[in-house]
Amino acid sequence: MNQLSDSLPRVSWQSIALATSFAALFWGVRRTITASTGEKPRLNDTKVLVLKRFLVSRCTIPFEKIGDTFSEWARKYGDLVYVDIAGMPMLIVNTYELAQELLSKRANINSDRKVGYMALHLMETEWNLAFIQPGAKHQFMRKMLRRGIGPQRIASHDHLIQDRVSELMVSLLKLKGAPGPTLASTLGSIVISLTYGEEMWNDFGKELVDWDNEIMGNISVAFSKFWMVDVFNFLRFIPSWMPGAYFKKMGIRTAYLNRLVRAKPYARVLELYESGKLGHCLAADLLDEFGPSEELQDTLAALYLAGSETTINLLVSFIHAMFLHPHVADKVYAEIEQVTGGVQPLQIGDKEKLPYTEAVYKEALRWRPVAPVGLPHVSNKEDTINGYYIPQGTMISQNFGFMLSDPRVWKDPENFRPERFLEDHDPPLPHPASILFGFGMRVCPGIYLAERVGFHIAASIVSLFKILPLEDQTVPRPEDVEYIKNAFVLPRDFQCGFQPRNHSSKEILGLMEISQLAKSE
């Protein structure tokens, strides 16, 4: 039996990575089986990979380059790459098939989490479904979410989604600038109203959105830096006023917000439920079926807390793709017009009649994936893959970026070509969402909601608007676009305007606005 940790070439990393480094120390990168030959590397065929990136005389991988670096390693070393991070083994998985094998088929042994002391304990995120270890609570929370927003129940929320998307279309009519904040407001409204009811959104929905943004921002910072308290846990006892104790202040603030988002909306929901005033929402359905519990409180908070961020970023990426490829958007509009007649708004149920539009949505998710690397799973026992030994406690990282750009799968990955999803392939091409939303026990339980909301918003935008550059600006060439690369990959400084496609689009938007005014009276 070959052992990954003994048989692969090594690259030294000299010290703690600063600021935006990925996690901590990188001590080695080692070659694994190559996909083309199946050759098993021996101890005497080592190659040293020289990474020429230095920061204050220290060799680091900046956090914003993690996706690029992992993909470079995938091209050089193959489908599996082994890395040692300060004594913590990590296996980087670069193909969809191997991720399915390790993380879905072997989910019982490869679904643990390892989260730093800063993020898990100081920020008090132990309750969050994304970080809970597999077990009874994790299983029960996922069961409740399947009941509420799984494939059999998701359509029960269509009226809310349709109504909020109409409001979004009217808002976009007036927008000239970055689409992200407007999308965030709509997605926040959908997720909070769906989770806790429209009463909650009306009472303090904006507060919840603000808390959500601050928590997610702080967690992102926690995952993008090395914290001494992660290694020396006793540092948690130092006073927050001491120099260098910023981590303590941020931890205290985030812990407070985590307690707030769990307790405040749940207490209000229970009041409304017990008085018979809670309308249709996920909380009402789950209280009817399971009754009140801490698990229910945490399930609702977890859905609302992380239920919109990925979808917002996917939609920004889609809008940007249509901005860069207006001829594709025109073809989408032509297909939608055949379904709606161009005289009525698109309906959620129309999706099955729109194969080209669905292909474009998939290609937008694939072409510039917003999440280059998945949150690592951790193995809870020894295992083997392709003849190699995986130690217990290995972090298994999914290289989403390479999976969605591997030329062996996608042939021409740099081209935006939706037709690839309408062609016959053996094996069939994976749906990009089946990669971006994770694997096995850790697949995002909100995937059906995200798909339903994301596709309907995307198709509705193209059915009503041309996405145009602002005045005195032009559409850049795709190869000239700069991207922000951190936890998510998004176009830098992307701004645009939304112009109704034609007279019929103006009439539809006018009717949407009249309907909103009538509801507000």
UniProtKB/TrEMBL annotation:
Cofactor: heme
Cross-referenced Pfam families: p450
Pathway annotation: Secondary metabolite biosynthesis
Positions with a binding annotation for heme: 444
Keywords assigned by UniProt, alphabetized: Heme, Iron, Metal-binding, Monooxygenase, Oxidoreductase
Single GO term (MF): oxidoreductase activity, acting on paired donors, with incorporation or reduction of molecular oxygen
Matches recorded under InterPro entries: Cyt_P450, Cyt_P450_CS, Cyt_P450_E_grp-I, Cyt_P450_sf, Cytochrome_P450_fung
SUPFAM superfamilies: Cytochrome P450
PROSITE patterns: CYTOCHROME_P450
Domain of life: Eukaryota
Listed transmembrane segments: none
Family label: Belongs to the cytochrome P450 family.
PANTHER family, alphabetized: P450, PUTATIVE (EUROFUNG)-RELATED (PTHR46300:SF7), P450, PUTATIVE (EUROFUNG)-RELATED-RELATED (PTHR46300)
Name of this chain's protein: Cytochrome P450
Organism of origin: Serendipita indica (strain DSM 11827) (Root endophyte fungus)
Lineage summary: Eukaryota, Fungi, Dikarya, Basidiomycota, Agaricomycotina
